[in-house]
Amino acid sequence: MKLKVTTLDNAESGEIELADEVFGVAVRRDILARVVNWQLAKRRAGTHKTKSRGEVTGTSKKAYRQKGTGRARRGNLKTNIMRSGGTVHGPTPRDHSHDLTKKFRQLGLKTALSAKAADGKLAVLDAAKVDSHKTGELAKRLQALGWGNALIIDGPEMDELFQRAVRNLSGIDVLPQQGANVYDILRRDQLVLTRNAVEALEARLK
C-alpha cells in the first residue's frame, strides 16, 4: 500500500510504502471492541464503596421492647431497611482490569491502523517539527490540511516546540509511537503518522 507524504505546509513530499501485515489487516469490530474494553477497564479506579450494616455509625441495641407497643418488631437500627442504615450487597473496592494476551493486543493495534487506512482517514506527515511554539500558527496549518479532529503519532523522540504549540488545540492529540493505542486511534476522526512513526510501528508490529 502506497500513500502520499505531506508536509505541514500542505505540500507533497514523495510517497511511502506501508506494510500490508500492519496496515492491511482485515477489520474486525469484535477485536477492536475487546481491546477498547480492556483499555478502559484498566483505567477504572475501582474505589467505589458503600457502608454495610457493620460499618455505619449507630448502636446495635434493640430500639424498644418486642411486645406491647403496637408497633412492628424492631431490633438493630443499622439494617438496610432503616433510614441511614447500611447497604446490602453494595459495591466494594476491586480491580476491574483483566488479562489480554500480547498477541491479541498487537492484533488490535494492527486492526485499528488498518481500519483508518481502509476508511481513507490515514495520512502520513513528513515530520512533526515547527520553528515556533505559537499555537495560532500551527492551528492555521492544520486547518489548511483539514485536520480538525486528529491524532498525530510521531517517532520515539518528539519535537518540543511542536508539543508546546499543539498543547492548547482542542481536538488534536499527540503521542509518541510507544504510546500508540487502539482507544486513542479510534476516538479521533483522522490518524496522522510521521515517517518515523511508520518505521517504528512497522518494526514493532511485524
Automatic annotation (TrEMBL):
<dbReference type="Pfam" id="PF00573">
    <property type="entry name" value="Ribosomal_L4"/>
</dbReference>
<dbReference type="InterPro" id="IPR002136">
    <property type="entry name" value="Ribosomal_uL4"/>
</dbReference>
<comment type="function">
    <text>Forms part of the polypeptide exit tunnel.</text>
</comment>
<comment type="similarity">
    <text>Belongs to the universal ribosomal protein uL4 family.</text>
</comment>
<feature type="region of interest" description="Disordered">
    <location>
        <begin position="43"/>
        <end position="74"/>
    </location>
</feature>
<protein>
    <recommendedName>
        <fullName>Large ribosomal subunit protein uL4</fullName>
    </recommendedName>
</protein>
<comment type="subunit">
    <text>Part of the 50S ribosomal subunit.</text>
</comment>
<keyword id="KW-0687">Ribonucleoprotein</keyword>
<dbReference type="GO" id="GO:0005840">
    <property type="term" value="C:ribosome"/>
</dbReference>
<feature type="compositionally biased region" description="Basic residues">
    <location>
        <begin position="62"/>
        <end position="74"/>
    </location>
</feature>
<keyword id="KW-0694">RNA-binding</keyword>
<dbReference type="InterPro" id="IPR013005">
    <property type="entry name" value="Ribosomal_uL4-like"/>
</dbReference>
<keyword id="KW-0689">Ribosomal protein</keyword>
<keyword id="KW-0699">rRNA-binding</keyword>
<comment type="function">
    <text>One of the primary rRNA binding proteins, this protein initially binds near the 5'-end of the 23S rRNA. It is important during the early stages of 50S assembly. It makes multiple contacts with different domains of the 23S rRNA in the assembled 50S subunit and ribosome.</text>
</comment>
<dbReference type="InterPro" id="IPR023574">
    <property type="entry name" value="Ribosomal_uL4_dom_sf"/>
</dbReference>
